[in-house]
Amino acid sequence: MEIFGILWLEVIMRPMINSLALLYHVLFSNFGLSIIVFTVFIRIVMIPLTVRQTRQMKKMQGIQPKMKAIQEKYKGKKGDARRQMSSETMALYKEAGVSPIGCLGPMIIQMPIWIGFYRAILRTMPSTPEGMANLSGLFYAWNPAITSVPFDSQFLGISLVDLVSAVALPWNYALPVLVGASMFLQQKMTMNPTSDPRQRQTNQMMLWMMPIMFGAFTWQFPAGLAIYILFSNIVGVIIQYYVGGKQPVELFGRSFLGTEQSRAERAAQIAAEARGASKKIASSPEESDDDDQSAEVQRKDSRRSDRNRPQRSGRRTRRRRR
Amino acid sequence: MTGHQKGGLERTRRVNGSRKRLSVLALLTFVMIVSAACIDDLTPEGGWSSPVVENDKLFVGNRDGNLVRFDPATGNLDQNWRYPRGDGLGAIYSSPVIVGDKIYGAGYTCRGDNCDGEIFALNLADGSSIWGQTGLELKTKLVGPIGIVGSTLLVGTGELGEEDDGPEGYLYGLDASTGASSIVKWRIALDGNAWSGVAIDGSTAYVGTTAGTIYAVDTSDADRFSADPDSRILWTFEAEGAVAGPILARDGDIFFGDLGSNVYKLDASARSASPTISRLNTGTGEWKFEAGAWGWARPVLEGGTVFVSVLDGTIYALDEATGTKKWSATIDGQIVAAPTLFDRKRGETRERALAVPSGEKNVRVISVIDGRELGVFVTDEPVKSTPLVHGGNLYVHTLNGDLKWFSVDDTNQRGCIDLKGGGRCD
Which of A85, B52, B348, B420 has a CA positioned 20 to 30 A from the CA of residue B36? Predict the structure, then answer.
């Protein structure tokens, strides 16, 4: 276990702490700026992982219809049929070049970096005597910032080591909201549309749960960490926009950003989805019991998504009438 | 279907089924680690308070922030003597100061920079507060040692939570006597947190700040200071790094280390005569020694030698007059607290030695002559407080909150007590 401790310290913590301190030294003794710049740097370094994750998710999305077809084919069957289903699923993954844990892999690799960065921020701005004394062993001897300790923790009028909830300043109230909103936007952009109602339900839950949870946690985080999460999300949104092929972002029933082409493609996709859904509803009485249940789920889901997208559903209704 | 295929399919099913759970688990782990990190790094732990002795009783601040009394004769805590009686103040870093029949101390707790501190003055006999139910409560960090001159208690603070745009720290002069109409006599604004606490020499108090300034302050009760407390400042000195550790003030000189990895000797008497000199004045015998690591522990002076410990575990013996190195020795772990000089038994004779507390574990015995390691008091726990020698024993407050005592002669452990509950320990 000791080797992991040494690796953690030497490979993650010390480089991060020294980078933050060096940036503080260069960036006019402003720790808020050094957090922001270092966050941007980390996100840029991790672009290959983000790209990989996005590609895997897109591939996964691409094979969803086939996956669904396989699941439908073996629905309600047990024993060898289930094994056959898994075999076909594996073959489908292989054919599409998708690793079942391909989406999680990059995320898992990124986790130590995020956690390390969190800890590095706290340890570079210690608020306790033991934290300050321990910081001495974390600096490289060549780091000129070593004589600047303790670093000035003020940024835009807030103390970066104070808990967000500790001081009643407008910025402190705004931070959890901004963190939640930026996370929502990032989730929204990362999430691929799906025709699977259950998956869509999960996506919807994650889309709202994560930002609300993080917004609430931010209230109890030191402001420095909140700023880090906020800017990490903002940079994540920008990266996702470009990595994801400048796809439009749908908010409150309207499309934002995106190129003309991507907006047109998205509109076509929505129209196709709508046609698929209406066909399914129309054909439901002739289908088997199982299919009845499936169509019912789809109908419910369709109604749910209609409520979420009032304008688009309006367009769809008009199109149907025509 | 082959066994190999079956295994593969089973794996696929498991992966598909557990992906969602993995995501949720990863998220929860992330949040838990982050929350734990916040708690660890934002809350002071204490355990640095060194024991002091008076009337054959030891007084020490425990890790909960209670000042407790230990009776060496029985090897037990006095259960009726404790301040506060209930929950502690959070953390006590400095040693209490005893003057006559009173004992003074300070403690605080924080989450980040949101702090609650208390300076207390107690009757030595029963531990009751002489300033009313509680002491002076300030929303600040109270880390370094406190000092007393006559009836004035001197306390260095960090910035006050009550003052949004206030200074980074204060030096408070408090009325140490009972029944004063106002506890606060005066206060001086400082340019940084006064984690170094206060050192006293005669009627002058010396306080260092995390901004790297040393203040020499006249603590007398002269009327001329009442209109302008800042006029008490006799002189200031700018160190290269922050001053976070305690200062040694002795016979008109002061010694201290900074976070710029330097150790300084300043001629306080000469500076009082020429207060405009803010830089090092080698002409009056002042010197600076580059120690290679941050200085935190209070230097120790004896027989023309200054013993200086730094955070990388090195202890230097420097010539008091010139600041030149006589020898150095290195132990494992940080040295946060000052070593203790004591007489070690060597055959039929005794020799001077240093008991050096290690932030890793144990108290090392180092020769004052050449820095050789002569022995070890095995605490098996990190030590960040200065050991106390009394009645043939060496008492050590370990970082886990125990008080352990050892025979000075053979270094064997004689007892251990938990300073929170008073129970026996190993």
Answer: B420
